[in-house]
Design a protein that fits this description.
7-stranded mixed sheet; single chain; Aspartate Aminotransferase, domain 1; Aspartate Aminotransferase, domain 2; EC 3.7.1.3; 4-stranded antiparallel sheet; Kynureninase; 13 helices; alpha/beta; hydrolase; 2 domains
């Protein structure tokens, strides 16, 4: 399709967009009494209007049933997480038994590393990507310290080549081969938070396992955003947050994946009573008998007030389907890219998109170096109703989330951006 940088063209795309009506199912902040253009769904998704009803249901059950809500609520609390199995499995490409919801993201990654990072002898090293999200870096450092290793020795970062913004697949594979029989774990972010690069999960997983390592993925920026086939790709484990592309609310519950090949294994884990045999959980038995599947990694009583917004969201995803989301994602991201290039022609500044141009290596994010511009441009955008994200030294991250972003939003953003640079 040949794009045009006009309002009429953008509105024409919106009129043909099968997902356009979902905008009305979200609550948008306002700036200057006008709905914002929201580009930070890669940090915190907007609130779906249906969320409140899911929370109110639990509040009402708590008021009317108190402790009996565990068993007699409309959605009983004691097995509330089981309602996620079917819809989440479709979002991440898993069997229903391979997914669960609990805790928060880094907590779950730590718990999963108890099972999947088992350094022994010379096999103790972890491969991750350079400039991983800081929480992951702190996690790696503390994990290897706990096991008695030095981070500078045990943590191997795959680096970008000089002058390049993204990591090449061949460099990932070469590093795995180089570390070889010293490699215990590969754990990478499925989508790099800074550049928006999407990694080849299938190929990297196969390479890591061929080297004798376990392979896990931090899918914080990937779940609900890219096509995932965790079961078929033979991924050992994964975890993700729910508050970015899945709109479950700030700091909310995390999802976990454990491949079924590990469900009957004797992997170590930190246990708690919510992971105990469901039918015998309230018999208060002294010895741990884990639930079969990912639910066997559960530890504590479920925070159902936190899970309710997440359930509202995954049921919306079930209505839409990942294929439809990804189709719009690719199209609207390409239109945003076009708008940026068009505005670039009209101003003296230079925009350098550091996210890969290959659609297979990117998703709902364009990270843009604003050469010749500083923080003042970001401040201008925010004051004029464009909610975006600033990263030093002068990068803005733009995430046109397909559920609630419109093509007209992309056009309007371009016009506001141009005015901010020209000083009009």
């Amino acid at each position: 399709m040949t794009f045009q940088n006009t309002r009429e063209f953008a509105r024409g795309l919106d009129s043909k967009d099968a997902l356009n009506h979902y905008q009305e199912q979200f609550i948008f902040p306002k700036v200057n009494d006008k709905r914002v253009i929201y580009f930070t769904g890669n940090s915190l998704g907007l609130q779906p209007k249906r969320t409140k009803a899911y929370i109110d249901e639990i509040m009402n059950d708590w008021a009317e049933l108190a402790v009996e809500g565990h068993f007699y609520a409309e959605k009983p609390w004691w097995d509330y997480q089981e309602r996620f199995a079917e819809p989440l499995s479709k979002i991440v490409g898993a069997l229903p038994s391979e997914v669960t919801v609990m805790n928060t993201l880094t907590v779950n990654l730590h718990l999963l590393m108890v099972s999947f990072y088992q350094p022994k002898g010379k096999r103790y090293k972890i491969i991750c990507e350079e400039k991983a999200f800081p929480s992951d870096q702190y996690m790696f450092q503390s994990q290897v310290n706990f096991h008695g290793y030095k981070p500078e020795d045990a943590i191997v970062e795959i680096k970008r080549r000089e002058g390049e913004h993204n990591i090449r697949l061949e460099d990932v594979l070469a590093k795995i081969e180089e570390v070889g029989d010293e490699l215990a774990l590969v754990l990478i972010g499925g989508v790099n938070y800074y550049t928006g690069q999407v990694f080849d999960i299938k190929t990297i997983t196969a390479a890591g396992q061929k080297a004798g390592a376990k392979v896990g993925w931090d899918l914080a920026h990937a779940a609900g955003n890219i096509k995932l086939e965790l079961h078929d790709w033979n991924v050992d484990f994964a975890a993700w947050c729910s508050y970015k592309y899945m709109n479950s609310g700030p700091g909310n519950a995390s999802g976990c994946f454990v491949h079924e090949k590990h469900h009957n294994s004797d992997l170590p884990r930190f246990a708690g009573w919510w992971g105990h045999n469901k039918e015998r959980r309230f018999k208060m038995e002294p010895n741990f008998d884990p639930v079969h599947g990912a639910d066997g990694w559960q530890i504590s009583n479920l925070p159902v007030l936190s899970l309710a917004p997440y359930l509202a969201s995954v049921e919306m995803f079930a209505e839409v389907g990942m294929d439809a989301l990804i189709a719009k994602r690719d199209h609207i991201t390409s239109y945003l890219e076009f708008i940026l290039h068009e505005i670039d022609k009209e101003v003296e500044s230079t925009f350098e998109i550091i996210t890969p141009t290959n659609p297979e290596e990117r998703a709902s994010q364009l990270s843009v170096f604003l050469h010749g511009q500083g923080r003042s441009l970001f401040d201008y955008l925010m004051k004029n109703g464009v909610i975006t994200d600033w990263r030093e030294p002068n990068v803005i991250r733009l995430a046109p989330v397909p559920l609630y972003s419109s093509y007209e939003d992309m056009y309007d953003f371009g016009q506001i951006l141009k005015k901010g640079i020209l000083g009009k």
